[in-house]
Specification:
By secondary structure, the protein is α/β, with parallel strands linked by helices. The protein has a single domain (14-240), classed as Rossmann fold (3-Layer(aba) Sandwich). It has 7 helices and 5 strands, in the order βαβαβαβαβααα. The protein has helices at residues 23-34, 52-64, 109-124, 146-157, 175-184, 207-218, 232-240; strands at residues 14-18, 38-45, 67-72, 128-130, 165-167. The protein has a 5-stranded parallel sheet, with helices on both faces. Mean pLDDT is 85; it is low at 80-88.
Amino acid sequence: MENVEVHNGPNIRKAVVLLSGGMDSAVLLADTLAKGFAVTALSINYGQRHVKELVAAKTLAQYYQVEHEIISVPSGILENLKSSQSGHAEVPEGHYAEDSMKATVVPNRNMFLLSIAVARAIALEAHDVLYAAHAGDYAIYPDCRPEFVAAMQRAVEQCDWNPPELRAPFLRISKANIVALGLQLNVPFGETWTCYAGRRHSCGRCGTCCERLEAFHLAGAVDPLDYEDREFWKTAVQHES
């Protein structure tokens, strides 16, 4: 895979981008770099079942030639919470808007991860912290909603004498819009990882796989990832509608 060369001037604005290894954060990284920021990518190992995403994050950081830190949180803080993402429940199948998808919620995750990102930004004297919450997350994840982001922004403003800005630039746009932006920016979607099951290939049946496949379809593109079941999302969408 060919690397992307990034030139940083002496007065460039610095940012910390939360990079999970998923497609949303990959597009966010590409978009932030395209806007001229000097980026440090930050990934968090919190005991997630789909730890494979951290391998994807490392690959993306190398591709974009940005500094990359992986921080592991102490055992028991998030990984023991009852969530399919931490391995304490089965990964539900179906459309992302279904009530069963609440099993994928890791309570308080984004508050915790953003706190780490803000602390690193202050230490690095970065001006901004960015994360890829988007409009499609609202139904399931409380910590991706505009109310949460606004509350966190107010908290960050009070956390230091020179606090960074907390930004969620995708907050009002859909997953399909993120795919479209990523295509414009030539994001290597084949190097990202989204599936919650964490097997060799994406399952195609969990909520996040269904959402991703639907987003590529709506954007008029084909997802380059290999799937165990590439067609299930169509049934899941029909069921939800």
